Amino acid sequence: SAVISQKPSRDICQRGTSLTIQCQVDSQVTMMFWYRQQPGQSLTLIATANQGSEATYESGFVIDKFPISRPNLTFSTLTVSNMSPEDSSIYLCSVVPGTEAFFGQGTRLTVV
Amino acid sequence: DAKTTQPTSMDCAEGRAANLPCNHSTISGNEYVYWYRQIHSQGPQYIIHGLKNNETNEMASLIITEDRKSSTLILPHATLRDTAVYYCIVTGGTSYGKLTFGQGTILTVHP
Lengths: 112, 111
Description:
Mean pLDDT of chain B: 93
Strand content of chain B: over 45%
Largest interface: A-B, 20 and 20 residues
Low-confidence stretches of chain A: none
Number of helices of chain B: 0
Strand content of chain A: over 45%
Order of helices and strands of chain B: EEEEEEEEE
Structural class of chain B: mainly beta
Low-confidence stretches of chain B: none
Largest sheet of chain B: 5 strands, mixed
Oligomer: heterodimer
Radius of gyration of chain A: 13 Å
Number of strands of chain A: 11
Structural class of chain A: mainly beta
Shape of chain A: globular
Distance between the termini of chain A: 37 Å
Largest sheet of chain A: 7 strands, mixed
Helix content of chain B: under 10%
């Protein structure tokens, strides 16, 4: 199993600013995953973060908008850059230490 | 990963079994069927997974048809706390973490 801590749990931000979300895991994992859940929608994978290499982004997501860091095997950050109201969503990180995925509680972001 | 189809919503009486269906007709031989659920305002929670045999754990049972084109998640004695969105996901190989979530089934358990 894995316990994931995400910070902040929620935030309200002004448009044009950036927010960095932190994800801490209680064990070492090779890959960490970042998802977005827009209001009333399902989860969509943003990118996969590997330690020691650049993150791999899914179609529709770019590094300039969602830069990711992965400095070690237990930590990752996702930055939402130059925010607009359309970025208002829940952002979740996930890890798969075995064959099942574990998720953080998410960061609820509101952009005004 | 294979696409899945689930009913949009289902109701269940508390204490009764909840049977949630999922169609995955394009599943390939090395792909597993996973079930997760998301209770309001929380991150998704793993429930169960299987390849071709029926599986049971402390939370639920998973019944997979012989042709593997569909499956059913069974919550044997649903409680109010089981009210959630249930996602059926097909994935395999090295893709365990890259999950494709459909819209899922909103299960409402009534007193």
